[in-house]
Amino acid sequence: MELRPPSYFALACLIDGPLHGYAIMRRARELSDGRVRLSTGTLYALLERAIGEELVTAGEPYVQSGRQRRDYALTPAGRLALELETERMASAARVVSARLRASARAASA
Amino acid sequence: MMRSGLARAALRCYPPVTRRARGAEMLDTLLEASSDRPAVFVWNVVSLLAAGLGERARASARVSVGRTIAEAAKLASILYACLWLTADLAVLIERRGWHHAVLLYMVGLLIILLAWSQGRQRLAGVIGLACTAAVGLVVTRQPDLLLPVSIVQPILPALGYLIMAIAPTRERPSPGAVGALGALVVVSVVVPGTNAIAFGQLIVLATASIAGLAVFAVQPRLAIAAAIIWTAIGLGMIAFASTQPAPWKLLVATAPAVLAATAARARVIRRKAI
Prior knowledge:
- The complex is a heterodimer of chains A (109) and B (274).
- Chain A is α+β, with helices and mostly antiparallel strands and 109 residues long.
- Chain A has one domain: Arc Repressor Mutant, subunit A.
- Chain A has helices spanning 5-12, 21-31, 40-52, 76-108; strands at residues 19-20, 56-58, 62-64, 67-69, 71-74.
- In chain A, the strands form 2 sheets. Chain A has a 3-stranded antiparallel beta sheet with strand order 1-5-2. A two-stranded antiparallel sheet of chain A has the order 3-4.
- In chain A, a hairpin with a 2-residue loop joins strand 3 and strand 4 (67-69).
- In chain A, helix 1 (5-12) crosses helix 2.
- The longest helix of chain A is centred in the C-terminal third of the chain and has 33 residues, at 76-108.
- The model of chain A has no long low-confidence stretch (mean pLDDT 91).
- Chain B is an all-alpha fold and 274 residues long.
- Chain B has 2 domains: 2-61; 65-273, no CATH class.
- In chain B, helix 4 (65-94) packs across helix 10.
- The two termini of chain B are 38 Å apart.
- Chain A binds chain B through residues 20-22, 25, 39-45, 48, 61, 67-70, and chain B through 18, 22, 24-30, 32-33, 43-44, 46-52, 54-55.
């Protein structure tokens, strides 16, 4: 299963522990160096899908600073999906890097 | 305050079940994510609109095409009852002290609509079938009593009543939908200038058709129901085809095509959404 960047970074935000919706938005932006900016609609759509695929669990709602919140946590299946996707991207990057190096060597020779 | 209102309005694009489960949380997340930044707020609201409509489309796509058409047929029969209630009320206002049979028919239509609004589909279906049979009897015995209608016209809506009677669901229509339909019938009957038989019906059907087209991308049920009614009217016109003006004949020719196209489109939407 291939994870798109928004889903990948949203799941990656939960590696260190459960976070609520707004915290996931902020953390995903930090982790991706500002490349992934999750909107509210996108965030909840991907969380809904992740919950449906049992990659994430949703906690009970609570109120903090007058805001309605709910924490989302990564499941073992979610962690595995994240590991597989990371490995897939790393493998693709290794292949392309090797090709680029070979091409550069051929050009300089 | 205005931002909160706009965000709440955008949330209404989501199905009610999602709004109940996560609406407050999504609203607070949106407001927190876009505090003091109008552009970010607009971007978040637009994303909420798109995601909400997408979720509605996925929800309707989970229902099979056969089930969608069956539910649309039920809705068509309800729309048809509204059309005749509109017509009968308009006639009743014009000719006070009308025939008992028509009053009885109106009571039947009201029971159908009431039962449907309460999720009592089997009762609505049985009464609808009884009303259709009664209309059939009256039309064949006293063709001048009712409005100019062929016996062919109620056949398609009767299929909806039949489905209600044999395969009812406990699904209750939303209070908003019931209110809108009731208001539409009342407006079509009481607004000055609309108190003519066909014009009141046209207002109801045209409004339902426009609403059906507006929500077609996420829920094709209403559009199919409207197309069924147009087809039923078209079929009814076949009986009077020789005396009808050209637009009606065009309707006879195009209504089944519109029905087929909406059903095909519903299938495409389902395939794309899954």
